[in-house]
# Entry
Amino acid sequence: MTIYNHIQGAIDTHVHLGVSRFSGVATTPDAIIQAMDRFGIQSSLVMPQPTLESIPEVHKAIYAMSQNYPGRIYGMASIDPWLSEEEYRSEAAVCIEDYGFVALKLHPLGHNISPLSAGCEKIYEEASTYRIPVLVHTGIGNPFSLPSLMIDAAKRFPAVTFVLAHAGFAVYTDEAVIAAKYCENIILEPSWCPTYTVVKMINTIGVERIIMGSDHLSNLPVELMKFQSIGLSDADLEQILIHNPKKIFNL
Ligand SMILES: [Zn+2]
# Structure
């Protein structure tokens, strides 16, 4: 049943597996596949929650999903930046080289770290080495989650693509828009943002730098409907839902 999505082959760039320490929401592999089938999602990018579970174990479970559903599940690694350089880089190598994960996640709230911290340099360096994007949680959990804090890394690592997940989470969305306006390597993923701000994003930076993410499975039809309720052409919808994520994450 695909009542909410008339664009087939869409890609959801923000899915979590496991139990969130913040919301308490638990998501299973079966629930992810069921939601994808129900709403016409071709592929999902899956990462651990900010969680008390073992992150390497969750990464392993995401890898297993990607093996069970080839082309439908891609992994993203969310590794604690407070780990030592060696520990961080070794888990990143497992995820990217062995598991084929397509991005690194920085969660300033979940990881309790400012993107300006020296501890985050290894994330940007690894992304630069492996030529993969960094997905950054923005909006809730300030000051660390302020979208403008990513301008510094974006300017210093121009070859790295930075995805501002939640695009400032409604309240700080203008800040995300400005960051993206002045940094061409910043992409906006507007989960939880109001529809009129999605229009503002598109008018400011164009459809080529916008992608869709659900964050919660129950929010997937809502995010799909948001893009389909703001008067976009089917070509623009396909650009946002399919072509942009394929290009940005090299799927
Ligand atoms: Zn999330």
Remarks:
- The beta strands are 10-19, 26-27, 41-48, 73-77, 103-106, 134-137, 162-165, 186-189.
- Residues 234-248 form the longest helix (15 residues).
- DSSP finds nine helices and eight strands in the chain.
- The chain has one domain: 10-248.
